[in-house]
Structures are given as C-alpha cells and as structure tokens.
Amino acid sequence: MGGNNVIKYIFSVVVVILILGTMYFIVKNRSKNEDYSLDQTSTVSNIQTDLRFAIAEYDTINPLLSDNRNVHEISKIIYEPLVTLNENYKMEYCLAEEIGKQDDVTYVIKLRKGVLWQNGNNFTANDVRFTMDIIRSGINTMYTDNLRYVADYEVVDSTTIKIYLTEPIPFFEYYLTFPIMCENYYIEEAFDSKAPIGTGPFKISDLSSNVIKLVKNDIYWDSNKEFMATEININLYATIGEVYSAFKNGEIDILTVKIPDVEKYIGSLGYNKIEYKSREYDFLSLNTTSEVLSDPAVRKAISLIIDKNNIVASCLGSGYVSSNFSLDMGCWLYTKDLNIGVDTEQANNLLASSGWQRSNNLLIKDHKRLALSLAVNTNNELRVRVAENIKEQLENFGIPVTIQYLSAESYADAINNRNYEMVLTGIRLGYSPNLNTFFGDGNIANYYNPEVAEIMNVVSNTNDDNALYEKYNRLYDIYLEEAPYIGLYRDTNIIVYHQSLVGNIKANEFNIYHNIDKWYRQ
Q1: Tens of pLDDT along 30-47?
Q2: How far out from the chain centre does Cα 138 lie?
Q3: How many helices (H) and strands (E) does the chain have?
Q4: Contact assessment for residue 473 and residue 336, using Cβ atoms and an 8 Å cutoff
Q5: Angle between helices 296-305 and 381-397 (to 10 degrees)
Q6: Most distant CA pair in the chain: distance in Å?
Q7: Interatomic CA distance for residues 215 and 222, integer angstroms
Q8: Which of 16, 226, 231, 499 is 20 to 30 Å from 1 by CA-CA measure?
C-alpha cells in the first residue's frame, strides 16, 4: 500500500505540473495576442498584413499642398508633427521631446534625438524652420492658421528651435500639429516637384496614377510600436461614388463618410460603423448685458426649456447630435456630463424666484412681460429652421420670441458689436481646450464673472493636469448655473470598416488611425 501511495503521489505531482505548464503557455500566448489585438479565431495563417485605403478626387500626397480630406487623414501615418493628439485630443510629444515656455510669448522646443527621415538622413531643427517657412510663404495650405500667432522663429542648434508669438496664446502647443517636411530633400527642387518623405511609420514606395503603395518604415524612431501591417495600398478613385462601390465590393478596408445615410450606397451588411462628433458646434449666445438676460436665473430657465433632442429630430435629422458644451466632442478635459435636460418645472421655479409671475400664460414682472428677440443669419437655412423651432418651444412655455432674420452682413455686425439679445451662431472649434472665445475678455456674450476670469487666468498659465481638471470642473458648475451660452448640437462623422479588419479602431477629428500599429486583416 505504501508503494502505491508513493506512485499516486508522484502521478498527482506530474499532473499538477502539466496543468500549470499548460496554463502558463495559454496565458503567455493570450497576453501576446492581446498585445496585438488578435481575436480568438486568428491564427498565423489567416492574418493578412496588407491594408487597403482609398482617396477620392486625389490632388497630391503632399499634406501642405493638398486640399483633400482623405490625404490629410492618411498623411498622419507618413508625416509627423512636433506634437500629436491622442484619441481624447490630449497633446502628446511626437518629433518634439520637450517644449518650454520662457515667457508669455516665447517657446523653446527641444527636438527628439535619433529621428531619421525615411531616406536615412537626420531630422534637425532646420527641417522645422524650413516647414514653417513654407507654410508662411503664401501657399494655399490648411496649416496657415497654425502659425497665425507666430511673429518669428530661430534655430538655436540642430535640436532646438525658438518660437516668438505676437501675443499670449493659451495652449499654444496644440498649434504645433502641422506635418514637418525634410529640407534637404528639396535643396535643388521646388517644393511641389515630388512627393515628400516623412519620419512616420510608413513610407511611400510607389506612386502611380491609380495607387499609392506604402511600406513599413524599418528605421522608424518609436521602437515601442510593433506594427502588424507591413504595407498599405491606397487606391485612387475619381469620385466618392467609386469609393463606395469599391468598399461594397470588399476592395477597401476602412473609410470616412460625411453622409449619414451611407447605407444607401454601401448596403448594411459585412461592416462596422463608428460615429464620432465633429468640431462644428452650434449654440445660442445670450447677451448678458441686455436688460432681461443680465439675470442668470432667466438664462438658466431658458436652458431648461429648450429641448435639444427635439431640435435634432425635427430640424436636423441623422448626422447630428445634441451638444451641451464646446468640449463635449471628446476632449480629455470634458470630465463632467453636462447633460442639460428639459425641466420646465425647475424653469418655472427659477423665474418665480426672480420675480416673474404668470398671467394668461405670459410671464410678467414690474408690469413688463418676458419677451425675447433671436437673431439668425437668413442665408443659413438650417439655422433658420432651428431658430423657428426654438421660438416655438419658448412660446409654448409662455415667452414670446421675435426672430430677427438678418443678412449675412447685418448678422456679422450684430455679433461683432454685441447688438443682439440672443443669437444663434456656431463655430469650428480648435483642437485645444482653450475657452477664451466663450469666457475670455471680449467674449461674444459680454459675459463676466470674477471667479471665471481667475479660472481662465490659471488654466492659461499651467500645464498641471490636476490643476486643469479642478479648474475646468469648477467652470462647468458655473456654466450650468449662469448659462451665458446654451449648447445646441453638432454634426457627426462616420467611419465604416469591414468586419475583416481587426484592431482597436478609435477615430476622432484629428486622426482616424489611432492604434493602427495593432490593425491587420483576416
């Protein structure tokens, strides 16, 4: 019996060792797979490392010269900026290693060492100077605005460049997202003579009339990223209709679309769809120095009466979403849900506490009724519809509204001179969390609050994330209470990608190729 017990013991130990060993290899392989976002059905044999993108109405692959949205999207993986933005629009260093602020208008940029151009030459500060010279040379480029506050710049040494601004600009680093070009590549040739090289993870290996072929850049500086894809074929099409047909036929893996009813063109099967918020933001500005709207209680009551979802459903339809604040497009500092829903009971209570009494469904105070005017650009049919919807909602509550249908010129004058009571307007937001347009000196609502002014001063002069979180959250609380603006809606963009494309697909307005190092086809 003793011998049998020994044998059983040894057998049990062997079984335990085998089980533990098997579990180790399973965990190890699973960990490795998760690093590359492989799904559970993937094997080495069914992973395809070529990706297929598309450009419609191609003009040039040079990102400083192109007017094409698809080109600017794809340029993110070929060319690189000094700083980039992640999926939450937070700044991250790219070709810059450090940015120091000497004073309110002087920035010193230390460049990343060891970066090579795709032809093997060294990246230096002269390349940054060259790129800024090109952008400021008067060419037609989408990056002109990035340097509009730059007065001058100078190369200090091969890895340092200094920039001087015309005035203090909060979060100026966010303007440094333009792609850097190689100076030596164009020493004896015009800038528009050939496709530029970059420092990015993919480089152009072939450019023909119907396809641009990219291959992995084997000398890419960021060794922390191991790219699954080894080549990318960018198919060129004359029209967006041809792109839709190619996608439907399985010839393209991923694309951006602007039309909400894209299913009409590509069907509804075999692909995934991601909708993300754009930077186009429409809102009501309430003139806080006008007689009635100087009262925060009245402004907040209006914000609780207007049903934004009704506006979207009745006036806009698919392709738009309700929006409460300028940063709710996905900004990393939008940390509080400002979901301002309809609450007419609270609106009534606010107005009553401020002295407004109901009489025959009108609100009366000091023998005056509560009535408002709303200015809108008559040339903007969409906003006219929205203004009329807002008028109807407020009048159903008991607040008469007179719509001022203004010409484009009169509308601009009304805003510039703050000659309005309420105005329906909009803005294409920048990438930075700068809120000066809404809360800084000279803001369009004539809004002033001493605590807000102090907050704006602090956030304009700190890079401390904790301080920014604290101040922005306090700003949101004040915004909810005082309502100098009422966010309404923004439009959306759509990414569609085939189910055969595997990876963590996260897109925003700045870059649709976040996490592309983990993408592959199966």
Answers
A1: 333 333 333 434 455 578
A2: 27
A3: 13, 22
A4: yes
A5: 110
A6: 107
A7: 16
A8: 16
Distance CA 117, CA 221 (A): 10
Residues 6+ apart with CB under 8 A from 463: none
User: What are 490's two structure tokens?
Assistant: 């923004």
CA distance 508 to 331: 10
10 Å CB burial of residue 124 (0-12, 13-18, 19+) is buried
What residues are paired with 109 via a beta bridge?
99, 161
* Residue keyed to tokens 């700068």: 434
How is residue 116 annotated by DSSP? B
DSSP assignment of 319-362? TEEE-SSTTTTT-TT--S-------HHHHHHHHHHTT-EEETTE
Mean pLDDT of the residues in the chain: 91
* pLDDT digit string, tens, across residues 56-87: 999 999 999 999 999 999 999 999 999 999 99
Alpha helices in 44-165 (DSSP H): 69-75, 125-135
CA distance 357 to 194: 72
Mean pLDDT of 388-400: 97
Alpha helices in 178-219, H assignment, sequence order: none
User: Cα(158)–Cα(127) distance, rounded to whole angstroms?
Assistant: 10
